[in-house]
Design goal:
105 residues; mainly alpha; 2 helices
């Protein structure tokens, strides 16, 4: 079933996550009490955590959309630059071929 190392890993990760949650909640309570002069209850902590979660998710979504838009614009600009370079090359080749035909003819 489970190896000892897996059980130890699960327990250690639970301890680390639990300690991190306790640290974050105590810092949030200290911040709310010290700066905002509000005493947060456990329900208030859950509300703050949910609000922060949705805020982070919203920021990540907006950042993803901005990156996607920037990539699209970069690709569009690159295509336009390549097309301009190809047109310049075609004009030069046409002029070269025309001059070669004029020399022969």
């Amino acid at each position: 079933m489970f190896k000892r190392s897996q059980i130890i890993n699960y327990l250690l990760s639970a301890l680390v996550v639990g300690a991190l949650i306790n640290f974050a909640s105590s810092k949030m309570k200290d911040f709310a009490h010290g700066i905002l002069h509000i005493n947060l209850s456990d329900g208030g902590m859950v509300g703050v955590a949910i609000a922060l979660f949705f805020l982070v998710c919203g920021i990540c979504y907006v950042a993803e959309e901005v990156i996607k838009y920037a990539q699209q614009q970069s690709a569009k600009r690159k295509i336009e630059e390549d097309l301009k370079e190809q047109q310049i090359f075609n004009q030069r080749m046409n002029a070269y071929l025309k001059s070669r035909n004029n020399l022969k003819g």
